[in-house]
Specification:
The chain has 184 residues and is mainly alpha-helical. It has eight helices and two strands; from the N terminus they run αααααααββα.
């Protein structure tokens, strides 16, 4: 599906903007990758989808996009388990470390299939299993997605079109630009 998917021409500029923004923060993602064993591009894609990375913001939890001012309130709630190091608010690194270790400890298959599997798992399977569509979390901005998305935890809208650039679209633009290479 990944190889056959194409980025919709009307979304190409926005996909490139997201890729450029994420790549400009590569050093920060690489530092987290060195700590957690999760590839930098996986962290970048998750940050884009969950924590404001598409705009270059580092003010949201990587778990789910909640503010770093306190533990998460949305799924997964009450993360990170530890108090913030400075006693006031979490740093992006504290949150990312917790989210990545919580989700990926013991996972080593960062092939394309393994990466896409983990991305869909991160957001949840219900879009595909309950609603029978390719999840916008992965496929938004490609020809594999058109309409329908969860607009809040557990709240499905069959008429809403995702405005985010999906993970697969980001990865599909990173590869030909020689920013990443994902084993098949």
């Amino acid at each position: 599906m990944f190889d056959a998917a194409t980025i919709r021409p009307e979304h190409l500029a926005s996909v490139d903007r997201v890729v450029d923004t994420l790549y400009s923060n590569k050093a920060r993602y690489e530092a987290m990758a060195a700590e957690t064993g999760v590839p930098w591009y996986m962290i970048a894609v998750l940050h884009s989808l969950e924590g404001g990375g598409s705009s270059g913001s580092f003010t949201r939890h990587l778990h789910n996009g909640d503010s770093l001012a306190a533990r998460t309130t949305h799924v997964p709630a009450n993360r990170p388990a530890a108090d913030p190091a400075n006693g006031v608010a979490y740093s992006w690194e504290e949150s990312a470390r917790d989210a990545l270790r919580m989700r990926f400890t013991g996972w080593h298959d960062w092939s394309l299939a393994g990466t896409l599997w983990q991305l869909e798992k991160y957001n949840g399977w219900k879009t595909r299993t309950l609603h029978g569509i390719a999840t916008p979390y992965l496929w938004s901005a490609t020809d594999r997605y058109r309409i329908g998305k969860y607009v809040a935890d557990g709240v499905w809208s069959p008429t809403t079109v995702s405005q985010q650039v999906g993970a697969a679209a980001i990865l599909k633009r990173m590869e030909p630009r020689a920013l990443i290479r994902i084993d098949r």
